[in-house]
Amino acid sequence: MIPGKILAFLEDEGTVAVSGTRETNLIPHIHYVAGWEVESDKRTIRCYINQAYTDNLISSLEDNRQFCLTVTQVGSHETYQFKGDYVGSTEPNHDDLAAHQRIKTSFAKAVSQVFGFPEEMGLAYIPRPSLVVRFTVREIFLQTPGPGAGHRLFPPEEK
Amino acid sequence: MMDKAMLPDEIKPVMESGIPAIVVTCSADGIPNATIISRVYYVDKTHIALSFQFFNKTIRNVRENPQACVAVSDLAANIKWILDVQYDHSETEGPIFDEMDMQIEAIASATGMAGIFRLRAADIYCVKSFKKLSFTSASSRE
Question: Which domain holds residue B114?
Fold first, then answer.
């Protein structure tokens, strides 16, 4: 189960995300993410992806199920990476599109404040999703820049 | 012999724009890892460099499995470049290292993180292929 503090980050504070997969021969691929939502079991994440970023996505997931998602807050650099197992994919529903819109708006405001870009530019940067990838979280890592980056937060590292 | 792609000049300002980049690597046991980095450095038409600052998962992964995928964004033009690259070698001195060291310090100061970043090496990657994804025009691949 995703710890409460990180759940809150996913729900209210993360502004942009990217995901990764790998082929059978260990070649990795980047898939930009257009939003995310945690399901009611608090361990499955729905990850929204536009058609432009789906090359090698489903073929890799069906081959080995390995998926990673990194979510960051523009400005503070607070970042977490979620690694887990693919459980399925589907078309986005009404709630998914609402979550996508909320995150897109939040991203546009953040890049406007931090980089000085017009909000319209930020809105255009995150395209409407065409696919939802669902995965169960196995591990969570802190990735905020600094010496603590890379520490596993869930399950906690043994001391 | 590894295939190499020739990067167009138009990617250089994208790498220098200050917009963070993305790196996805994969461990030898098959677990992908996605990281946001401050920038990617253009070396020449067939090579890029990434900074080695901490002995993090990306660094460990590329020493186990040299394949990586790197993305840089042109936010103003709404274009993303996705590069398939392969780790080649590390440099701990010389002009590429010195240039990266200076720029990392500048980024650290500008983002309020001075003193957190320290360059250990410039990791040099060969560009195997790339694609340019645009939401305003047709995409291209090489």
Answer: 11-134
Give how many domains chain B has, as a whole number.
Answer: 1
ipTM here: 0.96
Residues in A 73-112 with any Cβ partner in B closer than 8 A: 77, 79, 81, 83, 111
Query: CATH number for the domain including B80?
Result: 2.30.110.10
List, for residues A14-56, the tens digit of each pLDDT value.
999 999 999 999 999 999 999 999 999 999 999 999 999 999 9
Strands A131-142 and A44-49: antiparallel
In angstroms, the CA B11 to CA B8 distance is: 6
User: Using a CB-CB distance cutoff of 8 angstroms, which residues of chain B are in contact with residue A117?
Assistant: 75-76
Please name the CATH architecture into which domain A4-144 falls.
Answer: Roll (2.30)
Beta carbons within 8 Å of B25's beta carbon, 6+ residues apart: A28, B32, B33, B35, B57, B58, B61, B62, B65, B67, B68, B69
Asked if residue B6 belongs to a domain, the reply is no
